[in-house]
Design a protein that fits this description.
Blueprint (H helix, E strand, L loop, with lengths): L2 H7 L5 H12 L5 H14 L3 H14 L2 H26 L24 H15 L2 H13 L4 H30 L1
Helix pairs in contact: 2-8, 3-4, 3-5, 3-6, 3-8, 5-6, 6-7, 6-8
InterPro entries: AhpD, AhpD-like, AhpD_core, CMD-like
Pfam families: CMD
Catalytic activity: N(6)-[(R)-dihydrolipoyl]-L-lysyl-[lipoyl-carrier protein] + a hydroperoxide = N(6)-[(R)-lipoyl]-L-lysyl-[lipoyl-carrier protein] + an alcohol + H2O
Length: about 180
């Protein structure tokens, strides 16, 4: 399935998602690596096989092998970090915030692409996974790297649209079975 087929699969009641998907990907002013790494990382984070099957081949065709691997690693490591840091933040006992995490996260410092791209992908995955502490951390790193708010917002625009498309199409698959 291609991007166009994915857009066509979106039901009419979710037409806004179809239009938004075309807009956040097709009309993006982001550099291609940043855009398609974000799309891939968000598709992985969405946990939707249908969305990942549609978007991964296009991402692979548009990214260098190093960027493709780095975007996958951002989705993987942020999946772990988002659960860990979101949980620690939500715990009533602030003492957990003083404990050493004790989790390996070496890929964050050794990912093989421009740091701002990796931070961008990490921010987008954190938006999908709803981790405020990670969102703040990656947004701060991007802003220190000179990325403006409008550009940072593109990360969570892509995340929100990819996640909404995944939710809608996965629900449609189940509804087709029960209706």
């Amino acid at each position: 399935m291609s991007l166009d087929e994915l857009r066509s699969a979106i039901p009419d009641y979710a037409k806004d998602l179809r239009l938004n998907l075309g807009s956040v990907i097709g009309n993006s002013e982001l550099p291609e690596q940043r855009l398609w790494g974000t799309v891939l990382a968000c598709a992985i984070a969405s946990r939707s096989p249908q969305v990942l099957r549609a978007l991964a081949p296009e991402a692979k065709a548009r990214l260098s092998p190093e960027a493709y691997t780095a975007a996958k690693s951002a989705a993987a490591i942020m999946s772990m970090n988002n659960v860990f840091y979101r949980t620690r933040h939500l715990m009533s006992d602030p003492g957990y915030g003083m404990l050493r995490a004790g989790l390996r996260m070496n890929v964050i410092g050794n990912h093989g692409v421009e740091s701002a791209d990796y931070e961008f992908w990490s921010l987008a995955v954190s938006a999908v996974n709803g981790c405020g502490q990670c969102l703040d951390s990656h947004e701060e790193a991007l802003r220190k790297a000179g990325v403006d708010r409008e550009t940072v917002q593109e990360a969570f625009k892509i995340a929100s649209v990819v996640q909404a498309v995944a939710t809608t199409l996965d629900a449609e698959a189940v509804l087709a079975e029960v209706e």
